[in-house]
Amino acid sequence: MTAIRKGLLALAASALAPAAAPAAAQDAASHTAPAYGASYAADRAEIEDLMARYMFAIDYFDWDAYVATFAPDGELTFAAGTTRGREAIRQTVMDFSQNIGRFYHTADGQPAKLRHVLLNSAIRVEGDRAWGTTLWVEMANHGPNDEMKMGTYGIYEDEFVRLDGRWLIQRRNVLNEFIRGRNSGPGNPVAEMDAAAAAHAAGGQ
Question: Where are the alpha helices (DSSP H) in the chain?
Answer without folding.
Answer: 3-16, 21-24, 40-59, 63-67, 86-99, 189-203
